[in-house]
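Exam prep: given the inputs below (a chain plus pyridoxal-5'-phosphate), describe the expected output before reading on.
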Amino acid sequence: MTNPFETRPAIHAEARKPARTTREWQQMDAAHHLHPFSDMGALNKIGSRVITHAQGVYLWDSEGNKIIDGMAGLWCVNVGYGRKELADVAYKQILELPYYNTFFKTTHPPVIELSQLLSEVAPAGFEHFFYCNSGSEGNDTVIRIVHKFWAAQGKPQKRYFISRHNGYHGSTIAGASLGGMGYMHEQMPSQVPNIAHINQPYWYADGGDQTPEQFALARAQELEAKILEIGADNVAAFIGEPFQGAGGVIFPADTYWPEIQRICRKYDILLCADEVIGGFGRTGQWFAHQHFGFEPDLITMAKGLSSGYVPIGAVGLHRRVADVLMSAGDFNHGLTYSGHPVAAAVAVANIRMLRDDGIVDQVRTDTGPYFQNSLREALAGSPLVGEVHGAGLVAGIQLTKDKATRQRFDDPWGLGNQCRDHCFRNNLIMRATADRMLLSPPLVMTRGEIDELVEKAAHCIGLTARDLGMA
Ligand SMILES: *Cc1c(COP(=O)(O)O)cnc(C)c1O
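Solution:
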């Protein structure tokens, strides 16, 4: 495939001329801006990197460094940066109808088009969509829908959610309560009640002598044990990411999801797939649950839904849930910006691009397998790499002290940060979750760009191995 960006006009030189020096930006940032998930005291001592513009799969910082973006922003810029079509759509929509609500017997063309389009790309049975502004709000919405679903059927006591330790479901109070990040829970004395967590299917760390398949099955069966402990009459739903994203791109073995689905059906519990990262082509399928071959009742979407160009999230409801909800009177939930016309219009254009330009197909049939093979080949000889997980254009690289015994380093977070620092210095965006290095580049990445990404990733992992005296 040709690089879709080569034909695009370069950003006007004026726009690239920094309005201020890096130092000025950093000082103002330090003086007034609190960053998410950051230690501001520590960050302000070194100063933030200032990203000024981007094109295709590359970012530029205020020092003029060209950086290859191995993370598509935060797992979201699926169509790549600098898509003029999306800017044009947003511009036109702002002039035509920048805002109107969808509360009071009212609707508008962009939200109608988006709903129709989502029903075309979503799996069979998903015909209804509820909108919000983020993945976190999407999962809040999932909780609201699930409660309403059971209450409408005379089972309001079915109110427990079960999720996983080291799962990520966002950072609103409900999203973080559903999520299993201990470091987030520690700072949240008030959590949403009626949520229980089971262990994650992280074979490399916890699998012991079991095969990945045995281990994944056992971890899935923890769901059954937890349901029996709480009482099936009290359990409303299970929610999970098809593969854990922020938790380290952990792909469970094939035995996992069929067993989770079997247990949910057996005990009459809704199965919710948080597809905020997995959705819109990441694995080469439209949704990651299709990669694993299971059938959820609810799907949370955000990130790739608009390729991050504007904030929007959504929940897709399978017919069996939507039918109940739609015959149960008022659903008392909504956001001022539910179905925001500009966000909806951009999402429509984004999804059409992913579909009609064959971007998702290309990840499935060409660049996805190419990336997975190249990465595994490049890292096979590294003494520091224990395993590579992934499909399509997403991968988790496990760092290890000893490949034979799967021993982990004493300070996994320190190790990951050390590797990430090498990436930073080498103009590569690769994220670390403890001792797993994560890649999730824009879905438009070409084979040539994949070569560069893989080569840089292997180089930075090699530098880390050298620091440790392993290579
Ligand atoms: C990013 C993410 C969220 C939260 O989305 P926000 O838009 O940051 O609120 C929820 N679930 C998963 C799986 C995510 O990766």
